[in-house]
Design goal:
Chains A, B: Pfam families: ADH_N_2, ADH_zinc_N. Chains A, B: Keywords: Oxidoreductase. The structure is a homodimer. By secondary structure, chain A is of the alpha/beta class. The first copy, chain A, is built from 8 helices and 15 strands. Chain A folds into 2 domains: 7-138 and 315-344, Medium-chain alcohol dehydrogenases, catalytic domain (Quinone Oxidoreductase, Chain A, domain 1); 142-290, NAD(P)-binding Rossmann-like Domain (Rossmann fold), CATH 3.40.50.720. In chain A, the strands form 3 sheets. In chain A, strands 3, 4, 5, 6, 7, 14 and 15 form a 7-stranded mixed sheet that branches. In chain A, strands 10-9-8-11-12-13 form a 6-stranded parallel sheet, sandwiched between helices. Chain A has a two-stranded antiparallel ribbon with strand order 1-2. Chain A is globular and about 75 Å long. At the A-B interface, helix 6 and strand 13 of A face helix 6 and strand 13 of B.
Chain lengths: 348, 348
């Protein structure tokens, strides 16, 4: 007798069309599929998971770039599942490193249950004395991005003068706090008065400013960095990078995590002050967190004690239910999230 | 009785005016001064030398930059001695590290005899089985620049695809040969058909091209680097940098030794392709040889055997007599020198 495969309902979020910029709620739609909660015997190395938390991150956007070779971000294509980081519980596994009951974080899909076949960025969660949702943020990809960018690319030392653009983002907040813990002078830029206040009052930045209120970014940076910048953690590129370049100190480092100001332009802005790197022996280095995941255990050794001892502040904005995922993603991009934007699907 | 100080005649080359670009013969003039060949007892840490060889190097030019803080190159000012690297013999010393009879290389002045007070970049010459003049080039500052830029900044590995602009220059020639010795694929650009031929036939470059004959540098680089560039050793900046940026491989390194195309512009060229560093995790690093002189002994251990074993080709163009120095310097800048341009003052 053939065993009849039992399937369960699987709610999903899909892209409605190609998304070429920041995704809006209307760019996505909900659908329901079915899925078997047991992997077939041919599914070698695959892992079947129940998605608990889904993460909304700034890289989750379309880009104007049509050249596949230089495309950083996947473009959402019509009727494809939204892909993103999440925290999951393993329900079935054909992978030697994962077993039923394991908690993991990594790249999954926006649905209730997922079969994960690309497992090279899937991490087992060994420490559950901290909220599981943290593994979408401070203990996950954004945390590793901040850690790798600041320590490995920035090579900071005590007393360094550190400037962070998009400082209110999940990565920027952590970079600033890591820099403060190292004894650096830290200034961040953000896009609202409220964010500026929170950076100073809650996250311990020495100074912060609202870039939208500044007429001359060069003068702004000279005001906050009369002695120059040692590390510029760049998330935006464009005019802010121009201003930072002329305010760098000798042998300064520009850590490039992103250049969000450039992605939607038909032609990127020419950077005139690049030549100044010669006069001051500047290093500009762009990086991706994927090249640093081998440091994840070392990262946890650093960050977990900071969290347990309350030395790092971390704020989440948790939307409940997959159906509220599209709105949460839009809110993250429009700056309306009041902390790291997470979508809660199930608590276990 | 007071001892009468004996002085000898001292021929010198001075700047006739401020020099804001490449120096021409007419920007300099000859004069004769006198000098005592004994240091006074107050001249602590100074060294009195007889200049044997003087070096003509591309950094010896004026710049439009008037901001002293970002000025890379000294501007020549009216009636000041031309300053440059040279090989010298110590005639008297109040410095503990140098004694009469020592041969040294480092920063000196364009005159027969000099008192050197800034001795932190003065190196004793211990190996005289190679021509002394080599210490103005392959065994001196240009050699150290090539070595530090290629090995320390470029971090090359066997099989890397290496592109060098201004490849015919003293630094570029050596970078190319070091890269070949490491097992890299090496392409250089130069400004004449003859230089291109010599790069290939004499210096062992895999390929070379005359940038003046190329209409579309992006297409040119795609032709020579269909799989992309791992290391771009940049001496020119501008359009060549734009083209290199879009042809870099993932995690490629752009080693910036200079951006000669930009120094004489009223406003530097905006670099539009800088944003591509994000897509491919590129590092751009500008350096100065001064930060790497501590590696000089290690450098000699690498380069001296290559020279002795004939594994590196090195060509000099030696002008005789200080009075021919200004013409030699102009020739170096106009590309007329047939090798590393040196001025011979005295053979010992």
């Amino acid at each position: 007798m053939t065993k009849v495969e039992e399937k369960v309902s699987n709610k999903q979020v899909l892209a409605a069309s190609y998304i070429t910029g920041n995704p809006k709620q209307s760019d996505m739609y909900l659908s329901t599929s079915t899925i078997s909660l047991q992997l077939s015997s041919e599914a070698s190395n695959a892992v079947l998971v129940k998605n608990l938390y889904l993460s909304c991150d700034p890289y989750m956007r379309g880009t104007k770039t049509t050249d596949n070779k230089t495309r950083l971000f996947y473009s959402f294509s019509p009727d494809s599942l939204i892909i993103g980081y999440g925290v999951c519980k393993v329900l079935d596994s054909k992978h030697p490193d994962f077993r039923k009951g394991d908690l993991v974080w990594g790249v999954t899909k926006w649905e209730e249950y997922s079969v994960i076949t690309i497992t090279d960025s899937l991490f087992k969660i060994d420490h559950t004395d901290v909220p599981l949702s943290y593994y979408t943020g401070i203990l996950g990809m954004p945390g590793m991005t901040a850690y790798a960018g600041f320590y490995e690319v920035g090579v900071p030392k005590k007393g360094d003068h550190v400037f962070i653009s998009s400082a209110f983002g999940a990565v920027g907040q952590l970079v600033g706090q890591l820099a403060k813990l190292m004894g650096c002078y830290v200034v961040g830029s953000a896009g609202s008065k409220q964010k500026v206040e929170i950076l100073k009052s809650k996250f311990g930045f020495d100074e912060a400013f609202n870039y939208k209120e500044e007429q001359d970014l060069d003068a702004t940076l000279k005001r906050y960095f009369p002695e120059g910048i040692d590390i510029y953690f760049d998330n935006v590129g464009g005019d802010m990078l121009e201003a930072a370049l002329v305010n760098m100190r000798r042998r300064g480092r520009i850590v490039v995590a992103g250049m969000i100001s450039q992605y939607d332009l038909d032609e990127p802005q020419g950077i005139k002050n690049l030549v100044t790197i010669i006069y001051k022996q500047i290093r500009i280095e762009a990086f991706t967190v994927y090249d640093y995941y081998h440091l994840y255990p070392k990262f946890l050794d650093t960050i977990l004690p900071y969290i347990r001892e309350g030395k790092i502040t971390y704020v989440e904005d948790i939307a409940e239910g997959l159906e509220n995922g599209p709105a949460a993603l839009e809110a993250m991009f429009t700056g309306l999230s009041s902390g790291k934007q997470v979508v809660l699907l199930a608590s276990e």
